[in-house]
Specification:
- The longest helix has 19 residues, at 377-395.
- The two termini are 37 Å apart.
- This protein folds into two domains: 18-162 and 357-377, Rossmann fold (3-Layer(aba) Sandwich); 163-351 and 383-418, Dihydrodipicolinate Reductase, domain 2.
- A hairpin with a 4-residue loop joins strand 16 (403-404) and strand 17 (409-410).
- It is 31% helix and 20% strand.
- It is of the alpha/beta class and 432 residues long.
- The chain is globular, with a radius of gyration of 22 Å.
- A nine-stranded mixed beta sheet has the order 14-13-12-11-7-10-9-8-15, covered by helices on one side. Strands 3-2-1-4-5-6 form a six-stranded parallel beta sheet, sandwiched between helices. The chain has a two-stranded antiparallel sheet with strand order 16-17.
- It binds nicotinamide-adenine-dinucleotide.
- Nicotinamide-adenine-dinucleotide is lined by residues 41-47, 66-69, 72, 94, 109-112, 114, 132-133, 159, 161, 214-215, 217, 230-231, 246.
């Protein structure tokens, strides 16, 4: 007897009219062999990758897809039909997907400016949620999402898959062993060509088959421009935050985890601008440094968009500088350079698939109703806030600032206007 037939036939639950997914939110664990229905919102790139990982699990089905680009939607539905034998229903309005009672989990793979509304609406509809990173495109949206997950008792996680990586767990273990000695500085860097090299595009009519109004959603009114659409939206403030939100949440997450930081920094010093490619089709900064001050160490962020080289021969990564040595890490490996020792560094290579492990870990939590998912929204919110504070520091002209998470205010008045976006009508900022 699977979970659904059990619910239908149980006398004790006979009067229960709540949707199945609300039932799934109770403390009762799902029986092994239950079918879990996943609905995907945003099918082009990462959301699709997430869904593939879910579908490697025997019990997972995908009966519904949503995208505002009809070509992407029908292509993806066709791929599922071919691989799994049944074509999912397709929607261009995510609210219709959320109306379905048979959907247990919603995966959100849309651009960042949509995460908050879709996440909150999914929670309200009684769904569990796997939302892509960064958690949201602003500080206030992060708070709303954390509140919604709590208020509606949903099992939720963010797509910061390194949290489930064996390589990273081993790195944390090494850091905790104390072998590096006192750690004074964590340097995090991210240098990618894609973040500054997009060609300038004239505005144009939106392509046929794209519901551009629904792509913009709560973001400010703006003429269509192909250079801000699929993937490229990352470099425009209304939809994304550049490298520090795109890569920053992944890598800052590792820095904060490594240093066991669970709060915002005492003070942040930020500087940068578009110095390398001032005429490129991007608003987010190609050159940026942020120093986060703690009581007895620093975490530093650096990005150089448009170039692909970096310290230790790595274009992205992080280093923990300890009294006894420096640990350098990225997704490809981590290694330790002992201080004063010229022997080859200890090198640890990755094993397993972080992304699949992340999705698998989340599914386990859904089945057991465990809110301590591989990357909780609280953790994702913290990492996203670090990124947003860095961006805001540069957007106000650089300098030092402190964000008070309790009062929800910066100590620099002009920074406060960046905390919460104004949603374009008819969309309303979710009040939880
Ligand atoms: N975890 C990771 O390693 C990782 C990697 C890449 C991207 N991401 C994250 O995944 C998210 C998506 O990034 P991407 O690269 O896939 O972007 P993308 O632009 O390639 O895809 C986004 C998709 O969402 C669709 N969409 C936009 N608005 C929609 C709406 N209102 N309803 C339904 N569909 C809508 C678009 O048409 C498109 O198909 C971002 O938040 C990004 O940061 C995470």
């Amino acid at each position: 007897m699977n979970r659904r037939t059990f619910i239908k036939s149980s006398a004790a639950l006979a009067a229960l009219t709540a949707p199945l997914s609300s039932v799934a939110s109770s403390s009762r664990a799902a029986a092994p062999g239950d079918t879990i229905n996943v609905g995907l919102i945003g099918c082009r790139n990462m959301g699709w990758g997430d869904l593939q990982a879910f579908l490697t699990h025997q019990e997972v089905r995908c009966p519904a897809l949503c995208d505002v680009d009809s070509q992407i939607l029908s292509d993806r539905a066709g791929e599922i039909a071919e691989k799994y034998g049944k074509r999912p229903d397709t929607y261009s309005d995510y609210r219709k997907l959320l109306d379905r009672k048979d959907i247990d989990i919603v995966v959100i793979g849309t651009p960042d400016h949509w995460h908050c509304l879709q996440f909150v609406d999914a929670c309200k509809a009684g769904k569990d949620v796997y939302v892509e990173k960064p958690l949201a495109n602003s500080i206030a949206e992060c708070d709303a999402m954390v509140a919604a997950a709590k208020r509606y008792s949903r099992v939720t996680t963010a797509g910061q898959q390194q949290r489930s990586g064996k390589l990273w767990h081993e790195m944390i273990e090494y850091l905790r062993s104390g072998k590096l000695g006192r750690i004074s500085r964590v340097h995090v860097w991210s240098n990618f060509a894609y973040a500054a090299m997009q060609p300038l595009n004239p505005d144009s009519a939106a392509p046929q088959g794209l519901d551009y109004e629904m792509w913009l959603g709560p973001a400010p009114e703006s003429p269509f421009n192909a250079g801000r659409l699929h993937g490229s939206w990352r470099m425009f403030w209304d939809y994304g935050g550049g490298l520090i939100t795109d890569w920053g949440v992944h890598l800052l997450d590792m820095a904060l985890w490594g240093m066991d930081v669970k709060t915002l920094p005492i003070r942040t010093l930020a500087g940068g601008g578009n110095f390398l490619f001032p005429d490129g089709a991007h608003q987010t900064f190609d050159t940026m440094s942020v120093v986060y001050q703690f009581k007895d160490f620093l975490i530093e962020w650096e990005n150089n968009s448009g170039v692909q080289t970096g310290p230790y021969g790595r274009n992205y990564g992080l280093s923990f500088r300890g009294a006894n040595g420096t640990l350098v890490a990225n997704r490809e490996s981590w290694e330790v350079y002992p201080e004063g020792d010229r022997t080859a560094p200890v090198k640890v290579a990755p094993s397993g698939n972080d992304h699949l492990a992340h999705v698998t870990g989340f599914l386990e939590c859904v089945k057991t109703r465990n809110p301590e998912t591989p990357c909780t929204v609280e953790n994702a919110s913290l990492c996203a806030k670090y990124s947003h504070i860095g961006n805001i520091g540069v957007r106000i002209g650089g300098g030092a600032l402190t964000y008070d998470d309790r009062k929800r205010k910066f100590d620099v008045a002009k920074a406060n206007s960046y905390i919460r976006p104004s949603y374009r009508s008819p969309w309303k900022f979710p009040e939880i």
